[in-house]
Amino acid sequence: MQLESQLPEQTVPGNGRECGGPAPTPGTRRPGGRTARTRAAVRDAVLAGLTEHGYPGLTVEYVAAHSGVHKTTLYRRWKDVEGLVADALDLAGEDSWIPPDTGSLEGDLRALAQEVVTSFTDPAVAASGSAMIAAAFQSERAAEALRDYYIERFARCEALVERAVRRGELPAPPDAAPEIPADAASDATAHRGIDAGALVRSVSAPLFFRLFITREPVDDTVAEQAVAATLAAAHAGAFTAAGKAGASPGAAR
Amino acid sequence: MQLESQLPEQTVPGNGRECGGPAPTPGTRRPGGRTARTRAAVRDAVLAGLTEHGYPGLTVEYVAAHSGVHKTTLYRRWKDVEGLVADALDLAGEDSWIPPDTGSLEGDLRALAQEVVTSFTDPAVAASGSAMIAAAFQSERAAEALRDYYIERFARCEALVERAVRRGELPAPPDAAPEIPADAASDATAHRGIDAGALVRSVSAPLFFRLFITREPVDDTVAEQAVAATLAAAHAGAFTAAGKAGASPGAAR
């Protein structure tokens, strides 16, 4: 997997498809005590069940049989199938994944896009990620957990944008510039004026749109087009925090 | 709904959210004979059932009870629930919807984006469109029908790009220009060199991505950002047919 080859192995406890979909590889190293091991075993069983049967077919019995954890423990700690799926997503978000750092915004965006393509065109790993996205259609708790997962994951990805601004690849919008003296720009404020969240989502969106909405295939060409479109939009200043806050006061986001 | 107000009413037999999701309003005028009326009644019942119970809970019995069409007829003509869902999607694609024509590419893209936001933030119409997208996770035939629906729908949307090129808003890429003498450019070839399909998908993708993958809200501000990003990418030549065909020979799309 392209992303993994660019990262020290120990920083990728899952399978590296962290902006692609939440589906850590079963058998991943599990730090922590018995509680953590139990939680990870349950998570693996949930993913296996979602992959095999989908959300409508997932049962507490299946998870008990495949995790070796007693049914009464599952009911006491996770309550029901919704609770099991939500916790599997919460756990997927607790890894130490960091976004690619290739030295250029274009390279970083390309690595992210490639990660999505690789993840979802490999049937062995695509199924559980797809199953999580599908589960969110049927369970409000799964949908909330998926939202939290992606918000946190894309917040990590904003580091790409901060680095690009520091390298001078993405000048802050003119109207934001006076507020950011160059010598005072910290990691957290370097990209003020740019909606970094929208920028990093932009490269994934066309790929997920084809995979799960229009059901069209994705490949390297589609990924490259997503990179080119995002870069062009970023250079043109289309992802401005001002635009984000301006038109719709009180908008939830 | 914004789009409907821009179109002659008779061209919108559904609810106008045709790039947003396939969910014609029950009670729509039904031209044609008894067979067409039966098919539309069955389609309405399928949408009602998907909205009420989701794909896993949809049954032929439900469709019979809500369409007034006998179960044996349903089994004979549609075979099973998958066949019913696929035909409801096929029927949604057989309307006479045409994309917005506001006089500018920016206005047209904004109308498309607004349509998605309006459709999926109105609970009364969002449910059946979401249910179709959800059904595609569980039925390969539903997924195929959804793919066909969107391919055809976005093919209609390519007219936006053709008009923009004719108005000079989007010059054809330099390397494509020699092949297109101005006086020979027809509707079908005016946008040669531009991947019109990618361009029109680009404005919808970030909205669907938030709605159905990251489960984040969409609003006018997010829509406006999608329009700005797509326009900037289009002006920068990011949606080139050359790019589409170049990098990955034999890529399925």
List keywords for this structure.
homodimer; 253 residues; mainly alpha; 11 helices; 0% strand; disordered N terminus; disordered C terminus
Describe the structure.
Chains A, B: Residues 36-96 form the HTH tetR-type domain. Chains A, B: Pfam families: TetR_C_11 (PF16859), TetR_N (PF00440). Chains A, B: Residues 20-37 have a biased composition (Low complexity). Chains A, B: Keywords: DNA-binding, Transcription, Transcription regulation. The structure is a homodimer of 253-residue chains. Residues 1-18, 23-30, 177-190 and 243-253 of chain A have low confidence and may be disordered. In chain A, α2 (34-57) crosses α7. In chain A, 62% of the residues lie in helices and 0% in strands. The two termini of chain A are 32 Å apart. Chain A is mainly alpha-helical. The radius of gyration of chain A is 20 Å and the shape is elongated. The first copy, chain A, has helices at residues 2-5, 34-57, 60-67, 71-78, 81-92, 105-121, 123-138, 140-166, 196-213, 220-235, 241-246. Chains A and B meet through α7, α8, α9, α10 and α11 of A and α7, α8, α9, α10 and α11 of B.
Profile the largest sheet of chain A: none
List the helices and strands of chain A in order: HHHHHHHHHHH
How large is the share of residues in beta strands of chain A?
under 5%
Structural class of chain A: mainly alpha
If you compute it from the alpha carbons, what radius of gyration of chain A comes out, rounded to the nearest whole angstrom?
Answer: 20 Å
Distance between the amino and carboxyl termini of chain A: 32 Å
What would you call the quaternary organization?
homodimer
Tally of helical runs of chain A = 11
User: Based on CA inertia axes, which overall geometry of chain A fits?
Assistant: elongated
Helix content of chain A: 55-70%
How many DSSP E strands of chain A? 0
Average pLDDT confidence of chain A is 81
Tell me which protein chains meet in the greatest interface and how many residues each side has.
A-B, 57 and 57 residues
